[in-house]
TrEMBL record:
Belongs to the glycosyl hydrolase 32 family. This is GH32 C-terminal domain-containing protein. Residues 43-409 form the Glycosyl hydrolase family 32 N-terminal domain. It comes from Sporolactobacillus kofuensis. Residues 1-29 form the signal peptide. Residues 417-570 form the Glycosyl hydrolase family 32 C-terminal domain.
């Protein structure tokens, strides 16, 4: 990520006087509680400190490795290093030690170069630094985004099955001209940012990395084709099976530059992909060339995915992609209009820097950072800052006018977190007035869950809006709306009524045609919502901090519709377990047989416990059938309890009331 972006964002906040939400924070608890307000319970975040772009995603020896941009020393952007977490199932992650720390004690820089802004070559000379202070350089270089590959055949010479990381080394250095009349070093022109591509390798399965060649780059900044020394970054290396070589796309301002190698150390520039959409509106970042089979065929297409700092559909940063072919040297867009008309991976405000895992044959799994550079400063969580999306399985399908499109669904491993499916019941909403009509979901509540339903209507009874009200307060005044506007064919997430006082509802996407039905599936966590439309046809990702004064008063949910008739079917909910171990349990029998007329107490023999909060029995909620022991039959009682982290546990009891004895 570019430090200049942070400086600009902070300056804008100061200049225009944006008021940030006063989110509650909680000091780091003893051990790793992961129970702080708004801590996502099934999306990954670091235990503490700043996190952004995922880097170097790879599966090796049965373990998924997630490296990422990380500040080991604070909860703001800075000291950029590679953090590290591992998983055996893509869901439960264990944070590891920092994998590649920022470089320090770097040797002097000394080279001449003519950039796009220079009339003649200038001298880059001096001690590198990350503090933008030409007189007091700190000798450091940041470790920016990149990738990891598995060198199965010892191509690079470090040994078979070595993990090799490629990353952007970023620093500033003094720049001087060739006028030595007043200074033997030349006239000082100032200080500039430099970005180069470096290499590190691990022979212990990713636990530690050795920086290659005394931290000297494998692609120095002098090889940047555009002459843009401060925007030359984010190597994502992939193997091109057809041409038996390694391919490294890099961004350089308004283009993607493609380099190739056969030995993983020496890289040759081959071609460039020029930006043709929204040119100059920020820069491209995090490029990736992904070979993918078209579903149902043996045809391989190449997907070029990119992150954009500005110009995404919901405003600010986001991700786009293009379909084409690759001939070993250049990317060939599907049509002459392809690069002019990007497709978007996500239409919410908070999906950025997504890249795919290496070494997952037959699967294309992408992970992204949930944030937006436009308002990242609003996320005042503590002691951590930033979280990842759910890993998503990408499928490339043929789709008429679009040619090819990507469909996205959460990886199947996410289902391991489900505590079972709760059927929410079919229903109809007849909203004849202009105001919305709400149908509460009384049998399901919480802050971490999946909820899904199929909504349908007739054209002559078309509503103006329909969907879910999620994360509702008890009094119903605060909520997040996930809905569909049939009259404009727009799926949307509206968080203007969630209590944050942020007038923003930019997350929306238009569906093709004029459908008379839509399926909405939302994955809801403590501070995030991922909405998959029609099983992944479109996706919207949104970070939110509902009801800041009372974060746990956000558990209710409802269906709603406005000015029309809606039929709701296949409505289900599923509470999700915490990946951090914040999981309460309800203990007790699941079946009881009662004699006719005998007393019954729903809490007899039922207890709720939490590994961190202790006894929660008094906080249990009981619902279900009213048991009349003078009326024989089968009854069902439902129990639920939530802990301090907002994680819900469920329990069911079946009660048989026996027939009256005949004497």
């Amino acid at each position: 990520m570019n430090k200049k972006i942070i400086k600009i964002c902070v300056a804008l906040i100061v200049i225009i006087g944006i008021t940030l939400p006063n989110l509650p924070s909680q000091a780091k608890a003893e051990g790793s509680s992961y129970q702080e307000a708004y801590r996502d319970q099934y999306h990954y975040s670091a235990q503490q400190n700043w996190l952004n772009d995922p880097n170097g995603l790879i599966k090796y020896d049965g373990v998924y490795h997630m490296f990422y941009q990380y500040n080991p020393n604070g909860n703001e952007w800075g000291n950029m290093s590679w953090g590290h977490a591992t998983s055996t199932d893509l869901v439960h992650w264990k944070e590891q030690d920092v994998a590649i720390p920022e470089s320090d004690d770097n040797a002097w820089v000394d080279f001449w170069m003519k950039t796009k802004d220079d009339a003649k070559p200038v001298h880059y000379i001096g001690r590198p630094t990350t503090n933008w202070d030409v007189w007091n350089p700190n000798g450091k270089r940041y470790i920016f985004s990149g990738s990891v590959i598995l060198d199965k055949d010892n191509v690079a010479g470090f040994g078979k099955n070595t993990l090799i990381a490629y990353y952007t080394s970023t620093y500033q250095v003094a720049v001087r001209g060739d006028d030595y009349s007043n200074d033997p070093w030349g006239n000082l022109l100032g200080i500039r940012e430099v970005q180069e591509q470096n290499m590190a390798y691990s022979t212990d399965g990713g636990k530690t990395f050795i920086k290659y060649n005394h931290q000297n780059p494998v692609i120095p900044v002098t090889q940047v084709p555009t002459g843009d020394t401060g925007n030359f970054r984010d190597p994502k290396v992939v193997y091109d099976e057809a041409n038996k070589e390694w391919v490294m796309p890099l961004v350089s301002g308004q283009e993607v530059d493609i380099f190739t190698s056969t030995n993983l150390k020496d890289w040759t520039y081959q071609s460039a992909i020029q930006r043709e959409h929204d040119v100059g509106n920020g820069v491209w970042e995090c490029p990736e060339l992904i070979p993918m089979k078209v579903k149902g065929t043996n045809q391989t297409k190449w997907v070029l995915s990119l992150s954009v700092q500005q110009g995404a559909p919901a405003g600010g940063s986001g991700m786009q992609y293009f379909i084409g072919d690759f001939d070993g040297k250049k990317f060939i867009p599907e049509t002459n209009e392809t690069i002019k008309n990007p497709q978007w991976l996500d239409y919410g405000e908070d999906f950025y820097a997504g890249v795919t895992f290496g070494e997952t044959p037959g699967r294309t799994i992408m992970l992204g950072w949930m944030s937006n550079w436009n308002y990242v400063g609003e996320q005042k969580t503590s002691p951590w800052h930033g979280e990842m999306t759910l890993p998503r399985e990408l499928t490339l399908v043929q789709n008429g006018e679009k040619g090819y499109v990507l469909k996205q669904t959460p990886v199947k491993e996410v289902n391991k977190l489900s505590q079972g499916t709760v059927r929410l019941g079919d229903r109809k909403i007849n909203a004849v007035a202009k105001l919305d009509k709400t149908s509460p979901i009384t049998e399901f509540s919480g802050t971490q869950y999946k909820v899904s339903a199929h909504f349908s209507w007739k054209n002559n009874q078309k509503p103006n809006r329909l969907g879910f009200k999620l994360r509702e307060s008890e009094d119903g005044s605060k909520f997040i709306e996930v809905g569909y506007d049939p009259r404009n064919q727009l799926v949307y997430i509206d968080r203007t009524t969630d209590g944050e006082n942020i007038p923003r509802k930019n997350s929306q996407v238009k569906l093709n045609g004029d459908p008379t039905s839509v399926k909405l599936t939302a994955y809801v966590d403590a501070s995030s919502i991922e909405v998959f439309v029609n099983d992944g046809e479109k996706v919207l990702t949104q970070v939110a901090y509902p009801n800041p004064e009372h974060p746990l008063d956000t558990k209710k949910l409802s269906f709603f519709a406005g000015s029309g008739k809606v039929k709701i079917t296949n409505a289900i909910g599923s509470h999700f377990k915490s990946i951090w171990g914040n999981n309460p349990t309800i203990m007790g029998p699941s079946y009881k047989a009662l004699d006719y007329g005998s007393p019954f107490n729903a809490l007899d023999g039922i207890q709720a416990q939490d590994p961190k909060d202790g006894d929660l029995t008094s906080a249990m909620k009981v619902s279900g059938d009213n048991i009349n022991t003078k009326k024989p039959g089968i009854y069902r009682v439902n129990y639920s309890v939530s802990n301090a982290a907002g994680v819900t546990a469920l329990h069911k009891l079946t009660v048989l009331v026996k027939q009256r004895d005949k004497k």
